[in-house]
């Protein structure tokens, strides 16, 4: 919950609502990207970028090396699995949103 | 298995440990008069235990495990309020899984769920909003907890609910703020902390400026740190340097994630939705002035506390539990009389046993090899 997890932004699903799809180690999840949107630049610029995702909100952009190192750390701490479990648990709600 | 196996860069880890030992020697620190550094954030506590950092560092360095795990400081009275709301048959009560097992005075949310309350674990407050859209005839309440790391997410969810005109969503705010918490630690009588390993993700939101008083008024160095074991070691090394120089400053070891000014958009959302509470209860620490936030009048209709007029009673911690002393570093977890003796991760009495980021749970899980655990 507090450590968040890095994911890669793969698509902008709703530019008006600032929602994107993020791939978090194989799990796709709708994420709010307004805190990492760069003012004056199209949201599409975020596609392909890595972000630190906290409870469904992208809170910081990070480079790929940092993202991978953080993922490895979270695996060791057992936090990555906990995050993925929480995402799986609510997958039906999330799909409802994205649709 | 060696501690170094877990390190991405064992050589760097080893060299940092050597350099830390040199600095401790130069400071004249000893096991009996150690340098005491507090890691504020439970994420750091977990990392320190998981990687056995206390075992590779000289005994002249002592880690104090700070109060920065929001699950661990959840007071019983607030859990009781959550249970009361959740037991209302109109309500779908949503929460992060972390809060489910925290004991209340009557029951935990987990027990309330087993007894039939409609309680659902969610990953994000956005899931709670989705539930509200799908169940217009139910009241969906989200239990917002955490420091400034998770506070923007609930603030932005309230703003989204307003923008969409979702009337059956509300937030029960148990958010707490880091600065008053640090002040309370610094003002604890008899507690000596020589420096702070600062929280990484809270700082990603609030930036570095709010910490200045720690250097200016309290003359303590503060290093915002990443969570890798080498990040923690490097931060320790930096802190020892500032202590030796007698130059307390606020520094950022985690610049790859933490911008100087934090995240503007997140801060603006928190400011829009939340305001200080005069006082806020903490498990183990009692009441800390202005350490919590509540929803502003403008968003009153999204405030579960007003919608459900809960008791709000303050409930004392269980008598035998010594969470407060552990939270302020006066006692080590294993020195609590209940540790492993009535209080364990399976049957937590205090919340420090609930989350893997709580000092007691971390000690219980990894503590066998820890110095002093004997
Ligand atoms: S062992 Fe249990 S009761 Fe004692 S301080 Fe830790 S969490 Fe609190």
Automatic annotation (TrEMBL), chain A:
SUPFAM superfamilies: HupF/HypC-like. This is HypC/HybG/HupF family hydrogenase formation chaperone. The gene is hypC. InterPro entries: Hydgase_assmbl_chp_CS, Hydrogenase_HupF/HypC. NCBIfam families: hypC_hupF. It comes from Azospirillum oleiclasticum. Belongs to the HupF/HypC family.
From TrEMBL, chain B:
This is Hydrogenase maturation factor. The lineage of its organism: Bacteria, Pseudomonadati, Pseudomonadota, Alphaproteobacteria, Rhodospirillales. Transmembrane segments: none annotated. It comes from the Bacteria. Keywords: Iron, Metal-binding. The keyword Iron applies. Belongs to the HypD family. It comes from Azospirillum oleiclasticum. The keyword Zinc-finger does not apply. InterPro entries: Hyd_form_HypD, HypD_1, HypD_2_sf.
């Amino acid at each position: 919950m507090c450590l968040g997890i890095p994911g890669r932004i793969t698509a902008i699903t709703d530019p008006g609502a600032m929602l994107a799809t993020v791939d978090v180690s194989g799990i796709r999840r709708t994420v709010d990207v307004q805190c990492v949107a760069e003012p004056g630049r199209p949201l599409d610029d975020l596609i392909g970028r890595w972000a630190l995702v906290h409870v469904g909100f992208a809170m910081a952009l990070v480079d790929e090396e940092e993202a991978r190192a953080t993922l490895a750390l979270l695996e060791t701490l057992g936090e990555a699995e906990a995050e993925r479990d929480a995402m799986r648990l609510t997958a039906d709600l999330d799909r409802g949103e994205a649709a | 298995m060696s501690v170094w196996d877990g390190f991405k860069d064992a050589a760097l880890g080893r060299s940092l440990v050597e350099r830390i030992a040199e600095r401790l020697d130069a400071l004249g620190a000893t096991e009996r008069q150690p340098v005491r550094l507090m890691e504020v954030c439970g994420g750091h506590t977990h990392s320190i235990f998981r990687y056995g950092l206390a075992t590779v560092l000289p005994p002249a360095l002592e880690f104090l495990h700070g109060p920065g795990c929001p699950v661990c400081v959840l007071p019983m009275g607030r859990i009781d309020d959550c249970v009361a709301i959740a037991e209302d048959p109109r309500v779908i009560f949503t929460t992060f899984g972390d809060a489910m097992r925290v004991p209340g005075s009557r029951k935990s949310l987990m027990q309330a769920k087993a007894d039939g309350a409609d309680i659902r674990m969610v990953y994000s407050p956005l899931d709670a909003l989705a539930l509200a859209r799908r169940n217009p005839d139910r009241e969906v309440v989200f239990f917002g907890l955490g420091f400034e790391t998770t506070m923007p997410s609930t603030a932005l969810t309230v703003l989204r609910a307003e923008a969409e005109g979702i009337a059956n969503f509300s937030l029960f705010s148990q958010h707490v703020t880091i600065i008053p918490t640090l002040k309370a630690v610094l003002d604890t009588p008899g507690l000596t902390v020589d420096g702070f390993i600062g929280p990484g993700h809270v700082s990603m939101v609030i930036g570095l400026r709010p910490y200045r008083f720690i250097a200016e008024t309290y003359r303590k160095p503060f290093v915002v740190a990443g969570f890798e074991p080498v990040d923690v070691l490097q931060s320790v090394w930096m802190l020892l340097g500032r202590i030796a120089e007698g130059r307390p400053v606020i520094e950022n070891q985690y610049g790859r994630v933490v911008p100087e000014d934090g995240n503007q958009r997140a801060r603006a959302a928190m400011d829009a939705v939340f305001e200080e509470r005069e006082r806020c209860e903490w498990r183990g620490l009692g009441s800390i002035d202005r350490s919590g936030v509540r929803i502003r009048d403008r968003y009153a209709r999204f405030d579960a506390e007003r919608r459900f007029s809960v008791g709000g009673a303050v409930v004392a911690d269980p008598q035998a539990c010594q969470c407060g002393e552990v939270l302020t570093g006066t006692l080590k977890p294993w020195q609590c009389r209940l540790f492993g003796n009535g209080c364990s991760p399976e049957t937590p009495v205090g919340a420090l046993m609930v989350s893997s980021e709580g000092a007691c749970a971390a000690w219980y899980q990894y503590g066998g090899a820890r110095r002093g655990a004997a």
